[in-house]
Amino acid sequence: MSDKRKDYITWDEYFMGVAILASMRSKDPNTQVGACIVSQDNKILSMGYNGFPMGCSDDEYPWSRDAEGLDSKYLYTTHSELNAILNYRGGCLEGATLYVTLFPCNECAKAIIQAGIKKLVYDSDKYADQTNVLASKRMLKSAGVEMIPYQRSERKITLNV
Ligand SMILES: Nc1ccn([C@H]2C[C@H](O)[C@@H](COP(=O)(O)O)O2)c(=O)n1
Ligand SMILES: [Zn+2]
């Protein structure tokens, strides 16, 4: 009988956990999103969270979701999924899996498809009714990207050791 630990975390818990941790870096006061891209042999390839592009200060650009025109955060934020794709320096993401804490929008779906990502594991789908998410699902389905809702476990994972 093996003495191996039995209560180790699953691959899904591990990679979604990394995505959740990445989301905690976001400065967005309303929604923090994290993404983690994983190879077919369970190696983490890249991570990202939503924020402004390099050189665009978190303290100078607006975080408002309601403001009009140039004062809206939506003009400036790069989504976590796109950041994870763009952060990858290793070459090809063909066949990779994306773990993300919020279902991707239509613009990120285009990038996911074009990057060759074949599987998407998502946690929240809080904007499921929005047109951009419906368009995203339509494109991901057409492109054969598998969409899998993350099965939250009962286990509480704490980071303080
Ligand atoms: N799949 C997604 C969806 C949204 N984001 C980012 C974009 C914004 O920074 C924030 C959403 O803000 P809200 O409209 O909820 O105030 O989340 C993303 O990175 N990935
Ligand atoms: Zn997006």
TrEMBL record:
Superkingdom to which the source organism belongs: Bacteria
Stored InterPro entries: CMP_dCMP_dom, Cytidine_deaminase-like, dCMP_deaminase, dCMP_deaminase-rel, Deoxycytidylate_deaminase_dom
Boundaries of every CMP/dCMP-type deaminase domain copy: 10-147
Pfam families named in the record: dCMP_cyt_deam_1 (PF00383)
Keyword Transit peptide: no
Cofactor(s) this protein cannot do without: Zn(2+)
Keywords for the protein's UniProt record, in alphabetical order: Hydrolase
Gene3D superfamilies, alphabetized: Cytidine Deaminase, domain 2 (3.40.140.10)
PANTHER family registered for this protein in UniProt: DEOXYCYTIDYLATE DEAMINASE (PTHR11086:SF18), DEOXYCYTIDYLATE DEAMINASE-RELATED (PTHR11086)
Name used for this protein in its record: dCMP deaminase family protein
